[in-house]
Design brief:
The chain is about 20% helix and about 35% strand.
């Protein structure tokens, strides 16, 4: 069965972005992300792609797919209009959804509709960074982590130990 993995880092309050950017820099978590996704297919929304710091807005050493109703494919990035199209574009038995919120929600909805059955899980890094992203004003655009309802089952909740910023890694499945 095809496997869809979600991966994201969030603050303890559930924030994954502020004003279209990752509001912290944690080298260890970025390395974790790289280790998990290098050589794999990654799917992101258009806004997540636009937030990438690289000049060509592509994550290196990965097949990049953008979920967008308006974007067209380029030489280096495939654009698709639905989670099902992303799955069909994949030449592997898995893909990694890296954000943002609307893209996570689209895959959750596709999983619920079950038109193309797939397994769904999430790798979540919880970072103790709320004090670094404050103050947030009414003018700020906040992106929240997906809500994991009671249909998600905790597989592990690993406390990170002595590192100040990384509070824990969590893996859940649905």
């Amino acid at each position: 069965m095809f496997h869809v993995h979600f991966i994201w880092a969030q603050s303890t309050s559930g924030i994954i972005g502020v004003n279209g950017k990752l509001p912290w820099h944690d080298r260890g978590d970025l390395q974790h992300f790289k280790d998990m996704t290098t050589g794999k297919v990654v799917v992101m929304g258009r806004k997540t792609r636009e937030s990438l710091p690289q000049r060509n807005k592509k994550l290196p050493n990965r097949t990049n797919i953008v979920l967008s109703r308006t974007m067209k494919s380029t030489k280096t990035i495939k654009a698709v209009a639905s989670p099902y199209a992303a799955i069909e574009q994949t030449n592997q038995d898995e893909l990694w959804v890296i954000g943002g919120h609307e893209t996570f929600q689209a895959f959750i909805k596709a999983h619920d509709l079950n038109k193309i059955p797939f397994r769904l899980d999430a790798y979540v890094s919880v970072l103790n960074v709320d004090d670094e992203i404050q103050p947030i004003t009414a003018q700020d655009s906040i992106t929240w982590a997906p809500t994991l309802d009671d249909r998600w089952v905790m597989l592990y909740d690993h406390m990170a130990g002595p590192r100040r910023r990384l509070q824990k890694y969590v893996k859940v499945f649905r």
